[in-house]
Structures are given as structure tokens and as C-alpha cells.
Design goal:
- With about 190 residues, the protein is mainly beta.
- Helix content is about 10%, strand content about 55%.
- An eight-stranded antiparallel barrel has the order 1-2-3-4-5-6-7-8.
- β6 and β7 form a beta hairpin.
- The longest helix is centred in the N-terminal third of the chain and has 18 residues.
- The two termini are about 35 Å apart.
Length: about 190
Amino acid sequence: MRAYMAIVILSFSLISSINAQRDETLFGNNRLGLSGAWGTITYNYSFFNNDDFTYARGGSGGLEFGNTVFIGYGGYRFREDAKPSGVQNFNLRYNGLILGVTPFANKVVHPRLAVLGGGGRVRLEDRRSDRVFVLQPSVGLEINVFQWFRIGAEGGYRFISNTNLPGISNNDIASPFAQLDLRFGGSWGR
């Protein structure tokens, strides 16, 4: 019941903020008012020390504030086992809070900086698994194709901590990555 109530309150808040007059508010004066909602489909390629790469797919959704700041939640999962040299093959699934900044979002091509932080699970090929913490900063470019559709290309590094599996370290699982984002939604109030 609480979840339904929270959804109703959030929906009314969104509707009222979209239709609200430009009254003086806590966030309205400094241009941090709600200005959009976006959902993303992500295709991610992680590179390991033996020149092998692993494909991950995921997605995210969240709200945009001041046409620049994004706050959302996302999740990702390796679609195949990673095969780094010297350690067991493993699979990774993780999700967490995403904070992003998109300066000059009204320009056709603009930069995007983001960081994801949250929990995950590493599963080795022998079925042992462990919970880990993931921190994934990224930087890239985004193109406004339509008002409701953006394409982004980003790169970054996935840091892993709290691995307690024998024979595998945080550095064995951490990796640089490149990803393609397909972002759907909209911004208002420009």
C-alpha cells in the first residue's frame, strides 16, 4: 500500500511541477526544478587484461533537473562470462544510483558525465558467488537526434570492492569499458 501511495504522490508532484506557474520555490529560483524524465537502454563492452571483452546490457531511468542534472537508477548484467587471464571466468550483475551532468544539453552535440554506485554480485564459473560494491564513473558525448531521443557514447572504468572470493581480487573484476546509450524521454522548460 505504501508503494502505491508513493507512486500517487510522485505522480501528482510531477504533474503539478509541469503545470505550475513560475512561483518562487526552493529549487525554481536557482534553475534546479524538475525539467525532464529519461529512460536509457545501454550496450556496454568491458575490456580485460588479455584483450578479451565482455558484452553487458542494461538500462536506467530517472529525472532531469535544471536541464543539466540527472538522478536515476540503473542496472547492468554481463550477457556472457568474462574470461580474464589467470583467474576463473566470472559473470557480473550490478545496479545502483546514477548521478549525471549534461552541460549544454540544448546543443545538438554536448558532453555528458555520470557516475553509478551500488551493489552487485559476482558469480564464478564453479558457481561460487559474492556480493560486491561497484563504482562506475564515465564521460562521453551525446547527440540530440529528436527532442525525445538521444544517442550517447561513453567510456569509463568500473571499480570493484569487497570481493571475498579465494583466488580472485577486486582488480581482476574491475575493468575499463565503452558503451552506447539510447536515451528516450523528454525535457521541458528550455
